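LOG
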Amino acid sequence: MAKTTHGATVVLGATTLAAVTNVKIPNLSRGMIDVSHHGTTTAKEFIPEDLYEMGDFVVTMDYIAGSTTDDACIAALTSTPGSPVAVTVTVKAATGTEDVEFNAFGVNYEIQDLPAASADKQQAVLTMKPTGARTQAPTA
């Protein structure tokens, strides 16, 4: 059964990002090792690599220069190499909500074009690279 996704929240460190319009949660992927040998018949054989990798975390939001959201995005990009930012994304679940949590470093903070039309809005896109494990559990 499908569910709506409206209502997801994103927290970087201690700051809840405002005016978030799109969230791409990091996907999990694991490489495969070909273990086929001369005695293998019919088809190749594989085993999974020991470690999985998470894809990029991408969040799009309305851009407001100098806001706490803007400041948190800049801080994520300028964090020191040994200090990744704690990220929590709260999403709707089958029942209630669940928190997807991981640590990440900022990779890119793109402030998009300034539209000339008064009916348009300016947005920003933050891309982060997760490091370490990702957890997902019911919101406490």
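LOG (cont.) second protein
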Amino acid sequence: MARRMSRWRAGRLARPGVSAALLALASLALCGACSQEPEASPAQAEVPAVAAAGLAIFDPFVPAPAGDVAALYLVVQDTSGQGDRLVAASAERAARAMLHQTRREGDTVRMLAAGDGLPVPAGGRLELVPGGPHVMLMGLDGPVAPGDRVSVELEFERAGRIALEAPVIPYAEVERR
């Protein structure tokens, strides 16, 4: 049941001074929201974590795993104009690392080994993302928690080996990246 506003309250809200003040405050709030730039994610900030041999690597991270298997996500930008191919990976804390692709087959999502590697297009990007290609870190040597860093080495056909460190983040933060 809707409640009626008292005459006193309705009269106070209907006063020209109060209405104008409320309208001015609402306008300022809306203008402030419109003029603010959206916060850029680390990948959008265009500051590479590592730049070497014609490649720039952006926003590497590992979501905190529940067991001894984790995934590494990042973006590789070709700056050479020649393209490259990610052919292998290794991690200090993992018994092995595998390049995976994710494929949807009907209602099922399957991870498949990327046996021939993952291409980095000439002047383009290879995006290792949740639900897409990624590096699977298996057989972790112990617990990995948010705030830790995982040392990783990526191997490319042209660029060779590139070392980097990926921060471990809470799984809940994955969508914000």
